[in-house]
Amino acid sequence: MNIDFSYLGKLIADLTGLAVKIYKNNKEILYFSLNNYPIDVTNFILNEVNNEHIGYILKANYFYYGFINYNNYKIIIGPTYEGVISEQAIKELAFLANVKKDDENAFYKSIKSTNQIPLFTFIEILCALNYYFNGEKSTLENIIIHENKNLLDENIDNDYQKENIPHNTIALEEKLLNMIRLGDTTSLKEWFNKAPGIMGGKLALNQLRQLKNTFIVTATLASRAAIAGGMDEDTALSLSDKYIQRCELLNNIENITNLQYKMLLDYTTSVEKIRFTTNPSKLLIAVTNYVKRHLSEKIDINALAKNLFISRTYLAARFKKETGLTLTEYFIKQKIEEAKYLLTNSNKNLNSIALYLGFSSPSHFANVFKKYTKLTPNEYRKKS
C-alpha cells in the first residue's frame, strides 16, 4: 500500500487538533501540530511504544497518548486529556518531558490550549486508523492500556501487585470506608492480604458486567469517603470518573480486581498525605490540600493565606499551634519527601528535580536537602 504519510499526518493533526509524530525505523520523519509547543511533546514516550499494532499510554495525571504501528512506521498522537487539569498536573508532565525552566510558561499555555478528546472517542480514532493501516477491526475492549509505572505515580507498590489478591468482588464495608477516610494505608494493605473473597450482591446477569457494576459502586463510595477524609472534592470525583472509564475498557476479571485495589489504595494514600495529624482541623486539611496542589512552586505564604481568605499572621499562628511547625518548614518538608521519592525511583538529574520542586538553584536544593536528611542528594540516591 502506497501511503502519503505527509498528507495523512497533517490530516490527523487537523482533525484531532493534537500533535502527530511519525517515525520510520525509530527515526523521526514527520511532525505536525496546531499547538505551538515549546518542545517535542511526543519524543519522550517513544521507548514506551511496543510492537503491538495499536495502543495508548497513560502518563502523569491521566494525560494520554495513542500509537499505531504499521510495518516499520510508528505514529504517535497526543497528548490529550479530558476535564479540568491543574497547573500542578501540567508541571508533572513538563517534568517528565524535560521541559526547561525558560519554556515552562509557554508549555503551560500550549497544554491548556490542547484539544481535549474523551478517552473513549480517542480510542475509537485509534481503532479507525488501525483498520486503515493494518486491516484489523479493533474494539474498545481489546485495546491494551500501557501504563508503565511512572516516577510520579505512587499509587501502588510492586510488592503488593505480586500479592495473591482475592478475585471476587470486594464489598465496601464500613471498616474499609473508615480506612480510606482516615488515610490508613497500613491497615488497608493488611486487610487486602487477609480479606476473604466477598460477593457484592447480584448487579448484572453477566459476570464481567457484575464486576464492572460493583467497581462503579466502589469508586463512588471510595470518593465520598476520601472527601470526608479531607480530599478536595473536585479531585476526588475526577479520580473516580477516570478509574471508572479505565475499568470499562478492561475485559479481564483479574485486571479489574487489581485496578479496584489500586484505586482504593490511591484514595487512601491521598488522604494519608492530607491527614498528617490524628484529628486535623478544617484549616490543616485546607493547607495540606493547597501544598499538594502547589508542590512545584516556590513557597508563598501570602498566596496561601489569600487562597484561604485569612490573614497571614493568623494562619501562621494557628498552623504553628496545631502542628508545631512553621508553614515554611511544612512546605519544605513536603518538597524534601517528594525529592527523596524522585531520587529513589527515577533517573532524573538534580537540576531537573530542583527545578520541578521550585528551588531557586540546584545548590540551594542540595543545601536544603542535606539540612533535613543529613545527606546530599547524590549520597541519598546511592544509599537508596
Write the layout of secondary structure elements.
Elements lengths: L4 H12 L3 E5 L2 E6 L21 E5 L5 E7 L2 E8 L6 H10 L7 H9 L6 H16 L10 E2 L11 H4 L12 H9 L2 H10 L12 H22 L4 H17 L3 H22 L7 H12 L7 H8 L3 H12 L3 H19 L4 H7 L5 H12 L3 H7 L1
Parallel strand pairs: 3-6
Antiparallel strand pairs: 1-2, 1-5, 3-4, 4-5
Description of the molecule:
The structure is a single chain. With 384 residues, the protein is of the alpha+beta class. The chain has three domains: 5-146, Beta-Lactamase; 158-274, no CATH class; 282-383, Arc Repressor Mutant, subunit A. It is 54% helix and 9% strand. The protein is built from 17 helices and six strands. β3 (54-58) and β4 (64-70) form a beta hairpin. α2 packs across α3 (104-112) and α6 packs across α8 (207-228). The termini are far apart.
Whole-number radius of gyration? Answer: 22 Å
Number of strands: 6
Shape: globular
Main β sheet profile: 6 strands, mixed
Order of helices and strands: HEEEEEHHHEHHHHHHHHHHHHH
Detail the poorly predicted runs. 148-172, 196-204
Spatial sequence of strands, sheet with the most strands = 2-1-5-4-3-6
Class of secondary structure makeup? alpha+beta
CATH architecture of the largest domain: 2-Layer Sandwich
